[in-house]
Write a structure and sequence with these properties.
Blueprint lengths: L8 H16 L3 E7 L1 H4 L9 E7 L5 H14 L6 E7 H4 L10 E3 L4 H8 L13 H11 L20 H4 L5
Parallel strand pairs: 2-3
Antiparallel strand pairs: 1-2, 3-4
Helix pairs in contact: 1-3, 3-5
């Protein structure tokens, strides 16, 4: 395995996006990069990769299991991954804090590993206040990964954005 700081983050994202597209097939509307890599403040060796996936309808359990297995394998090798999956119903109508269909991060790894081994489903909160900031960032500067991503970012995402940022907008 390459040292954590030596593996090109952009290459990692492109490879991961291709694997995610294979997992979802036609169900996937878009893969969006946000966070430090999207804003140019990425620090190799300490930053994670932040992705937002959009789908029209929530995926079937087999697709979620495939995504979970992929992320449990790829996250941390060499970059940690934080990913939120949003369906159309999560984005429209806009509400704060925004709901999400599924989430992955290293914080949730232990619960997701138990779930993958046949244990109880990870008990994730139904809403994430931070998504308001991520969505507002994508509205201001959409950064799709790979082929033309098609997504409607809710125009009403600004309400709640300042509540998700410690210092306001």
């Amino acid at each position: 395995m390459a040292p954590k700081h030596a593996y090109d983050a952009e290459v990692f994202v492109d490879e991961l996006a291709a694997e995610i597209r294979t997992c979802f097939g036609a169900q996937l509307d878009g893969i969006y990069l946000h966070g430090s890599l999207a804003t140019g403040s990425f620090q190799r060796g300490s930053s994670d990769i932040d992705l937002l996936l959009t789908v029209d309808m929530p995926p079937d359990p087999e697709t979620v299991a495939g995504l979970r297995a992929l992320l449990l394998t790829r996250s941390g090798h060499p970059y940690d991954i934080e990913l939120s999956l949003l369906s159309h119903a999560d984005r429209f109508p806009w509400r704060y804090p925004p709901p999400f269909t599924w989430h992955f991060s290293e914080r949730w790894r232990p619960a997701l590993e138990i779930e993958a081994a046949g244990g109880p489903a990870a008990a994730m909160p139904p809403r994430d206040p931070d998504l308001a900031a991520h969505i507002a960032m994508l509205r201001a500067r959409p950064l799709g990964v790979g082929p033309a991503d098609r997504v409607e970012i809710p125009r009403g995402a600004a309400p709640g954005f300042s509540r998700s940022c410690p210092h306001g907008e």
